[in-house]
Structures are given as structure tokens and as C-alpha cells.
# Entry
Amino acid sequence: MAGRVKKIGSDKVKYRAPKGTRDILPAEAAVWSHIEALFRHAAARYGYGEIRTPAFEDVQLFIRSIGSDTDIVSKEMYDFVDKGGRRISLKPEGTAPVVRAFIQNNLQAVNPLTKLFYISPMFRYDRPQAGRYRQFHQLGVEAIGSDDPLLDMEVIMLAISFLRAIGLKHTTLLLNSVACGNCRPRYVEALKDFLAKSHDDLCEDCRRRYTDNPLRLLDCKNPACKALLQKSPQISAYICGPCREHFDKVRKGLDSLGIAYTVDPSMVRGLDYYTRTAFEITHDGLGAQSSIAGGGRYDRLIKECGGPDLTGMGFAAGLERLLLALEAEATMPARRIPCSAYLIALGERARINTLSYLYKLRDAGLHVEYDYLGRSLKAQMRAADRLSCRFAVIIGDDELERGTASIKDLAQGSQTEVQLTALVDYLLQ
# Structure
């Protein structure tokens, strides 16, 4: 089993990655790096600077920000008591740590509108399934300091721009307003009144949520609960004037840019800190678990975490989910640095005397492979072909005497001889 030690023979053991985690091997890691680079580029174009927060935080940060009745806090967090008696949690999401860092480092004094992005592993004790792991990876942005609806639109546009950059096309933008602290209580009471006569038909979690946090019922995945809630009151009928005006401006902004979206009254996101604008981006090829990115506004979170009374807006996307979407569209990029040449040295004298050329070629920016296994010329040529190298550069004793290298173009099958002093320039061209 994953994470267990399996005995092999009398004295050997075989270790496996813990359940819900996996190794990202070089070929796949190259794709991850490519996606991360595109995200960094997109964030930089929109004026966001990178922040890196610790892998673990005080558990109260997440209880206070996410909500004690959310599944993340009540079921999924990796929390423990450390050797100093402190209750710690591996971070299950990215916004609360960024907000904590914003407050602790007084970033408001640096810029009245703070725009940050992160790329980080996250941890949740969830049931492993396709695209969902107990250690997963998120890309995200946070913009703190403005309640302008156009900032909401910018964050949404950044998410869309990034997804376009990595090649995804079959996506849908879902939009909703989840109200504010002034109008949400009225909706919560209406929802409780609607469900009161069906209380016993709710799942065990939703019966608890009914009392502690009724809005979380809308996020339940139980089919029976979802069926009951299809006829429940819609939050749009209860939002106050300022919330409605804010939402209308976000929609008009998206309309002006020709961005298609669907208003989904049942979408509330899985975190308690969201207010007003909330959005998700789904992918057509992922079935029921179709969300690949999402976010929203959090106008109370900074103050609730001990900071100034400022508003914020952000989104996050799961890297594993993005990879599944790329696979569904058959647009997974191959991003290994192409091999320019395989340098083959024939004989011990050639091996010593060609090392300087090997490193000159690499320092010039070329991907050059070299044999460290003592293989034959034929075996090295096969290796060059397997690595899709463009050239095989062959240097033996005869070539050293002439001060040349034999260069075989593996794509065209032609061969030529080049002076060693011109080798770097020839391959660069």
C-alpha cells in the first residue's frame, strides 16, 4: 500500500510515496515548469509580485478565515501539535497565509493596492481521486486594498488570460454574488425556513450545517441534498442594493470585453470568507468534478485576521486539474529543452581533449549530451537518436590530429567536417 514499507527478502525494504501523494518525474516536471512560467508571465503583465509563505501556519488562522464548519477545517486539514506545544496546520489553501503575511509585514504601507501571486503546494486529507491529491499544487493571485468592481473583473480576466495562454479552450465562466454581511443573514433565514420541513431528509453533515452554517448546504455534493436545494430560494433575490450594483458593474465590464459567462445562483464556493463576487471556471472534459479555477472577493477577511479594514479579491487554480484539462483537450505541451547535439569522443585521448568543447557548447546555451557509460559508437548513436538530438558530433584521434569534428545531421542524414575552433558557432547557427 502507498506509504507502507514492503519487505523484500530478509533485509531489504521498499518505500512508497504516502497515499494521496505522487512523484513528479522529469518529463512531467518540464510541463509543470512551462505552465508555471506562463502563469508568472501572466501575473507580471497584470502587475502582481510573487510571495512565498510557509508550508504551515497557526491552525487558528485557517479556522478563523475559512470557517470552522467548512469541510476543509472540519475534515481535511493536516493539523498537529509540534514539539513546542503549538497547534500547527499544513496550509490547505493560499489566501489566508497571504493575508497573514500582508498584515504581519505591513504591506499596506508599501502600496495602497497590494497585488501578489503565489505558486505553492497545499495539503488536505481528502479521498484521492483523479486530479485530487492530499498534497496538491495551486497557482493564485490576491489583490488587497480596493473594493472597485473593475478589480474583480481584472482578476477574472487574469485567470482567463492565463488559461488561454496554456492552450485551454473548452472552459465556462460561472459567476454569482454571494452577498455581504448586511444582506446575507436575510437569505440564510429564508434558506433555513425553506429546509425546515425537510430537515430529516438532509445528510448528516447538512443537518449540522443547518444550525451552524446554513450557507454551506449549497456546497453539498450529496445527490439527495442537491435535489432538495434545486427549488430553494436564490441568493440573488436577497442581495442588498450596494451588492446588486457591484455585481452589475462586474457583469457590464465583462460584457464590454465580450467575455461569456453564466450566472449560477447556487455557486457559493467552499470557503466562508467570500463576499459579493464569486466565480468558477469549469472545463467541459472533466465530468462532475469540472472546476479548474475559482475565486472571489473577501471584504471582511483582512479585518477578521487582525488587520486593517481592507477588501480583497483573488483566485486560485489547481495545477493537477489544469493538467487533466490539457489531457482532455489533447493539448499537453512537450517542453523538454530539445537536445542540440550528442558529443561522441572515441578513445581516451579524445575524451580528455574534448571536454573543453563540451562545456563551451553548454555555456553557449546548447543542450549537449555526453556518454559516461563507456558505450560503443553504435550505442551512442542510438542514444542520440532516442534523445532526438539534431546532431551527432564525433571526435576521435584522427579528428584531433586535423583539429576538426565530424558532424552528422541526424535529421537529414548528411555529414560534414568542421574546425574545432568553429564548432560552437556552427552549432549555434
Residues 267 and 308 are 28 Å apart (CA to CA).
